Amino acid sequence: xxxxxxxxxxxxxxxxxxxxxxxxxxxxxxxxxxxxxxxxxxxxxxxxxxxxxxxxxxxxxxxxxxxxxxxxxxxxxxxxxxxxxxxxxxxxxxxxxxxxxxxxxxxxxxxxxxxxxxxxxxxxxxxxxxxxxxxxxxxxxxx
Length: 143
What we know:
The protein is globular, with a radius of gyration of 16 Å. It is an alpha+beta fold and 143 residues long. The protein has helices at residues 20-26, 45-57, 63-74, 91-97, 117-128, 131-138; strands at residues 2-9, 15-17, 30-34, 40-44, 77-79, 86-88, 102-109, 112-116. A hairpin with a 5-residue loop joins strand 3 (30-34) and strand 4.
């Protein structure tokens, strides 16, 4: 399970150090793709296969399914860490997440997310005020 929040910087070559705990959980190869809310999502190969299977089972006649599938799959890349524990994030994914220098890597259970630090702070500030309301809405789902 991926948990926690870590601050790292992206170097001039687009490399980002992955937390050692995350490297252990993600394994040698993992997938980085566009995430929702302006971040990147990072999946181990097992979780990625489950996601792809779920997407493949959806009706391709649905415009929304096609759009979401394209969004998730077209931007995806197989990645691995170098000997220093860094992963190279492709330019298209850095652009999607607005990643330039300071990044936050978060663990959200079955995946990790990579955020531009300023975007992460803005996201948290915007949602902090509504967290009690959100918890109340989710209580109907058994959370």
